[in-house]
Amino acid sequence: MQHHAADRSKSFTRRALLVGAAQTALFGLLAGRLWQLQVDQSPRYALLAEENRVNQRLTVPPRGRIFDRTGVVLAKNTPSYRVRIVRENTRDLAATLASLARLIPLDEQQIAGILQTARTQRAFVPVLVREGLDWEEVAAVAVHSPHLPGVVLDSTLLRAYPHGEVLAHVLGYVGPANSDEQAADPDPLLRLPEFRVGKNGIEQSYDHLLRGRAGRRRIEVNAFGREIRELDVDDGEPGHDVRLSLDMELQQFCYERLSSELSASSVVIDVHTGAVLALASVPSFDPTAFLGRLSHQQWKEWRDSPRTPLVNKCIRGQYPPGSTFKMIVALAALEAGLVTPGYDVFCGGHTSLGNARFHCWKSHGRLALYEAISQSCDVYFYDLARRVGVDGIAAMARRFGLGEPLGLDIPGEQPGLVPTSQWKRETLGEPWQRGETLVIGIGQGFMLATPLQLAVMTARMCNGGRAVTPWFVRDPNEPLPEVGPIGVAQVNLDHVLEGMHRVVNAQRGTAYRHRLALPDTQMGGKTGTSQVRRITRAERAAGLHKRKDRPWEHRHHALFVCYAPTAAPRYAISVIVEHGQSGSAAAAPIARDIMAKVLELDPSGRSLAASLR
Amino acid sequence: MVTQARIRPAELGLVEKLGQLNWALVVAVGLLGSIGYLVLYSAGGGSHEPWAWRHGIRLAFGLCVMMAVALFDIRFWFRWAYVVYAVAFVMLLGVEVAGALNKGAQRWIDLGLFQLQPSEVMKVGLVLCLARYFHSAYLDEVKRLFFLAVPLAAIALPAVLVLKQPDLGTSLMLIACGAALLFLAGVRLWKFALAIGAVTAALPIAWASLHDYQRQRVLTFLDPETDPLGAGYHIIQSKIALGSGGIWGKGFLQGSQAQLSFLPEKQTDFAFTMLAEETGFVGAVVVLLLCLSVIALCLVVALRCNHQFGRLLAMGIAVNFFLYVMINVAMVTGLIPVVGVPLPMISYGGTAMLTTLFGFGLVLSIDVHYTTNIPRFPTDL
User: Fold this and answer.
1) Which of A151-165, A531-545, B116-130, B242-256 shows the lowest per-residue confidence on average (mean pLDDT)?
2) Would the CB atoms of B257 and A52 count as touching at under 8 Å?
3) B260 and A222 in contact by Cβ < 8 A?
4) Which residues touch B306 (CB under 8 Å, ≥6 apart)?
5) d(Cα B139, Cα A14) in Å, to the nearest integer?
6) Mean pLDDT across the stretch A29-38?
7) Would you identify the CATH topology of the domain A57-243?
8) Radius of gyration over every alpha carbon of chain A, rounded to an integer in angstroms
């Protein structure tokens, strides 16, 4: 028995030591695992823990304001007050809402909705009660706030446009970023629901300057998302203010003056710098409608109106330039040395090419270049066009900025169209017809130009032949870039300007009735009337094409381009009245009134203050 | 007189017994409990509420129980060994019946002051039962297969009952602890190999009988990232907490994972994670070494004990404690599935600490009475 006991004891000792060793080994395994997690992979897990712990919240900086050249505010931010409620800070949520309903309008349904939302949120998350409070409501809530625990009154900034529709096409508007905009721009601001990105106009093209840089708050949060403490704050940078070349008083005047017509547009630029002083398109729309919820009905009405209120016609409207194009044809002929100003042509009311007959608007008799321009004789320019050829005319047109976007610093510019024989072969697959050259000679046919292009064309004629381009914003600290010559002889430009001078100031000029009523200052210009549709032989025979009771959309467009003062040109204007019937009757008086206002204000004399940008 | 006292230590007075106590073990266990107090203080966000002070009271009570158990003669525990097992077994049956009646999982008996988990009591009961059974066995007998029928049943019955509760972790602990005692008692190794082979073969059947949530635990364990917000959340957050603790830890009360509630169950099953996040690899290893030293002290007690009952009992208690620590730490470090086993002396929870301290009380008693002679078939105790 003793023997057995000793055996058993020995066996136990052996096995107990074995168990002890196994336990030690397994603890070693645990220590190894801890080493792996806590030493080897520690950096990775430290990062994950930090991601758990720290929440980065972005704050939206105030958007930069927009001013006109004299410092008038065109776009600003106004505070919008809202009331929110934090469930955990209220003693009784329903009772607090009931007291709140005595101060601001809240119906049963809204209260039920708020209670519902509050129940589904964590107790510390603020729930929106109402936004867009007026001053009286703000005051009422503020006064009673000691008795309203958990009620939070704060404000957000909303974009405001004091001049509304007058500047809607220039400024554009702001709205929540869509997925395309988010995909194209890595700025974290675009991911914030309360951020508004510039849509269209200056708001879009200078968005990066206006929006500023997002502020950052790093917050420690717990597993339920409650904020524990603020770790650090970066306030970000508010958006930069932007100053436009525009003169608000002039813009306002243009808009109101154009409003006498159903659908019209006008551009005023400085001929030496290219600064856009006014850019008005009538009718327009209320940009604040896009800030809130735009009703579908309103949207449809705007979209479907034949007067196209949503379209900025100054840069997107493309019209045959009509007789305003005749200066280009004249310059093409003069520059090619084909004619001199004394070259004369007999106008018998029409000319023929093969079997086709090309009409003038009246029988002028024999006339030379100055009179051909001032009386807008079509037969004279049929002749010049035939001599120069379409490609020569096109080359001259392009020197004056027609046929391509001019790079104005708002989006949406249309290129217009300057046809060439090559263009027709490539796009229509047909050879150029000689008759089409004649039509181009009077700015009809395939020719298309925007009001902006016509203003720039006029500027390049009267500024000494320099290739100015239009702009709204320039860095005031940098000198304006040198503008190169377009390569047209001054003497030829002077011949054309003389013709334009006579349009307005010679008794038989087409715009003589609309000359400036100023003692020392005169303007030069050119009328244009462009056909919307071809006049049939039958219509011409019946005289229907001149009748005023034709449907509005069948009437001719009325155009006028002008510059002033003729002695030392400074300003160029283009006016297009859609379906205005006659350039001299509809467009010229508007242009004259605007020019008078421009000369009175002399906006280029009002300097762009260097303190703002 | 001295020799007399050595030979018959049962005759020692209370004061003398206290002098004979294995104070190293007492101190090591007390230290672990105190570390638990600090961990729970931190888990409460730097507050004695709601866990730390109750843990402290339980610790004090448990230490008193441990000392009391230690002062009883080891023959007393020998005599009552089967009774303790039987009581634990009846309680297990009781919760099973109550659970069936309430149509839900029931793991404890409400004693008013605290909730008693019979499965915890069974861990000590099983060790007592097996130690007494093998105390009477010759090595030759142990080698007979038929002789093992009784201990195997003694292990299997409570294990099945606990598994039905359902508590996979405790059930596995009972089986592992029982197996360790069989091994220590001298059961041949090939029999274990056979058993392991049989279990492997039975695994598909066991898989079929597992509860859905238990299967889910195993599946999420295998790939926790598949369900990062659901069942895998525990393991992922625990690993983040451990890993971000680094070598030296984030500092007491500074563990962001635990303090900001990213770490679930930080006061119970994941207490070790919290400790390791705040005190780092160094703190975690110190605690593991402390646990290992407790196990080593028990091993020494077992080795110098005169009687087989004491040897097996001391080793059984040590193995039980080892399994707690091993399973808990392996679980929170992502080595095994989340099975819901607390870290004794540190996790918040009454029964586990009380039964652990009761067990250490038995080890102390064995040590005090290590020379006591217990006959193979005692007739007069």
Assistant:
1) A531-545
2) yes
3) yes
4) B370, B371, B372, B373
5) 14
6) 96
7) Penicillin-binding protein 2a (Domain 2) (3.90.1310)
8) 36
Q: How far is CA A429 from CA A389, A395, A418, A432, A479, in A?
A: 19, 21, 17, 10, 47
A37 and B CB contact within 8 Å = yes
pLDDT at B5: 43
In 10 A of CB A476, how many CB atoms? 14
**Is A50 near chain B, with CB under 8 Å?**
yes
E-state strands within chain B:
109-110, 115-116
A71 CB-near residues (< 8 Å, 6+ apart):
A243, A609, A612
Q: Are A483 and A489 in contact (CB under 8 A)?
A: no
* Interface contact B243-A38, CB threshold 8 A: yes
List the single range of A597-611, B42-56, B297-311 with lowest mean pLDDT. Answer: A597-611
Domain ranges of chain B: 2-368
What number of C-beta contacts closer than 8 Å exist between A and B? 139
Name the pTM for this structure. Answer: 0.67
Q: List pLDDT tens digits, range A447-483.
A: 999 999 999 999 999 999 999 999 999 887 888 888 8
User: Please, which residues bridge with residue A75 across strands?
Assistant: A66
Q: Is residue A580 pLDDT above 80, yes or no?
A: yes
How is chain A split into domains, by residue range?
Answer: 57-243, 248-605
**What is B160-222 written as a DSSP string?**
HHHHHTT-HHHHHHHHHHHHHHHHHHT--HHHHHHHHHHHHHHHHHHHHHS-HHHHHHHHHHH
Which residue from B minimizes the CA distance to A8? B139
Identity of the residue numbered A40: D
Give the other-Cβ count within 10 Å of B178's Cβ: 23
Residues with Cβ within 8 Å of residue A110, at least 6 apart in sequence: A130
Between A541 and B90, name the one with better pLDDT: B90
ipTM of the shown complex:
0.91
Q: Does domain A248-605 have CATH number 3.20.20.370?
A: no
Chain B within 8 Å of A10 (Cβ-Cβ)?
A: no
